[in-house]
Amino acid sequence: MSNVRFDALKMTFDRRPVDVTELTGKRSELFGLNVFGPAALKNFLPKEAQAAVTDAIEHGKKIDRKVADQIAAALKAWAISKGATHYTHWFQPLTGTTAEKHDSFFEPAGDGTAIEKFDGGQLVQQEPDASSFPSGGIRNTFEARGYTAWDPTSPAFIMGTTLCIPTIFVSYTGEALDNKVPLLRALQSVDHAATEVARFFDKNVNKVIATLGWEQEYFLIDKALAMSRPDLMMAGRVLLGHQAAKGQQLEDHYFGSIPERALAYMRELEIECLKLGIPLKTRHNEVAPNQFEVAPLFEEANLAVDHNSLLMDIMEKVAARHNFKLVLHEKPFAGINGSGKHNNWSMATDTGVNLLSPGKTPKSNLQFLTFFINTIKAVHDHADLLRAAIASANNDHRLGANEAPPAIISVFIGEHLTSVLDELENVSDGNLSPEEKTELKLNVVGKIPEILLDNTDRNRTSPFAFTGNKFEFRAVGSSANCAKAMTVLNLIVAEQLRKFKTQVDDLVDNKNLKRDDAIFNVLREMIKASKKIRFEGDGYSEEWVKEAKKRGLNNFKTTPEALKVMKAKDTLALYERHGVLNAVELEARYEIELEEYIKKVQIESRILGDIARNHVIPTAVKYQNKLIENVRGLKEIFGSEYAKLAKEQINLIKEISDHIGSIISNVEKMTDERKKANAINHADKRADTYCNKVKPFLDEIRYNCDKLELLVDDEMWPLTKYRELLFTR
Ligand code: ADP
Ligand code: MG
Asked: Strand, coil or helix: what is 218?
């Protein structure tokens, strides 16, 4: 009888690095080749239409139907010149992935011939059959229809032979059904708020964009091996499996030389991405075996989010060509480092200034301090929202797992900036002369060293760290759509900057303070008020958990707990104040997140139940029978003396029976709990029950299965082992 595991292993031995054509040549020449970017715009569009597109991108101006027709004609001509035959509205439904439905340009002309057709109407709006995308009840209550509408701020691109048009996805009544709409709204809000504050320092500023540079971590597992693991294929992570004798403790993989096969994959990935305008820049090994990272240069946040969604899609396609299974799960292998997607975030003005760059002069330092301290205060006030934005069944396995950022949200700023803030906090300007005040300001602001731009001052255990000229939100999950984290971060910073502006204006208008003094006063109060969110120590330590508790910081370990803040009155008020989500939209998102959590745990529980009963137990019984046969044989040969000789075998037989018994009873109990949970009407109670009553059985069952893996004959074990999954290159 064949063993799936050995068949798979045999297949992998024949794998050679797959190389693709077009690997040579300058990367710069490939960049943006398949994007309807500035160059294509210039070549294919009349001047007037070009200006309309620029206006739409930069000032959010509407594009009228006549111009839309011109743009559609240009897009069609461009796409066909590149060999495209189809077009699609490309959007990001709340499944977290991307969606597309291809239509052909081809249309019968009615006289036996055919034409290629694509006009403004088809560009601007579509009605995909979207009834199976999650809507959290929005489309049930109103209208079953959902519409996609063109987002001119993100350029169209060609994937394969399909012209893809980035769009938003909304219901008939205008409610957001995707990740992009709230992001665009939050970006608009932070633009307005940050522009007003930036104008304190420079009247020439008219627009502020949020910037995002993500870093994507992932695993590459040989496809044949991955396919021999039903859990990895269906749940994206292994639900059982004993750790290999060697894990990552030697740290020999991190930044080591990239294995040939993986490198061939990366090369092709880079080429595909560059053609689509995704500015991939770095690639390297990560900490765990067969774990890697890829990162681009940062971009405007909406574009960067689109590019990350696109990247995840391309990664999977390219992986298949190289006989790899791409694993984006946050924690595919218990006991081995998980994967994240660090979100490097900052704000930049249309005058070209990074608002989180300390700069060289005191003036820009005061501006820096303003945006820096406001961000810290925003995180302090809304830490729970940030935590909710990264909550998922997958990420629960990673956050706080002693290698990933903890589930406690805190901010790391480094030694230098800590001392700058301490100094600022401790001065009282009540009896200082104007000269002394100026001196104080110059001293404080002059003290921020450029050296910070260096990588020396790093704390990798913090979920939200300042890294020289940007904040790095490290707790975002590797499979997540970064729109969620980016929406919340930009929203809370917008809220904080609005408050700040009001407070400063008030001191200037009503207390006769000079503006710089007013800014200093408000910043000082903010430093005091947000102190508890700052933590410079080891985020992985037990002491921090205790200390955080003392400080009153929340430590939501599970998704159902973390999501509860979405139900708070204040949360809705905040979202409404900035027009990011209304009550219906927010409620729908809460429901969708819970449902997704429930489904994930439910699926994992079913898969593990199946594997335990259909793979593990039959194998254990088979091996146990071999042992029994052996004992019988010994008895036959040695008579009454056999008991001494077969002592260990008999113990083993008992031990196997114990594990089998435990697995069977736990699978039964888990199934019962699942049934009970499924009968609960309210999603939040159902999620709690899945979390607290069903999920614990996963660990219990796994424990016994993993023990059996160690006891049973290796030749009989049907499930590909850790060492094979992780060390096959
Ligand atoms: P690492 O964090 O690995 O040391 P870097 O500090 O060079 O690497 O940058 C990591 C990421 O941060 C990159 O994707 C980079 O584009 C991004 N980044 C750099 N500056 C900014 C910025 N001003 N805004 C947003 N992202 C940025
Ligand atoms: Mg980083």
From this structure: strand
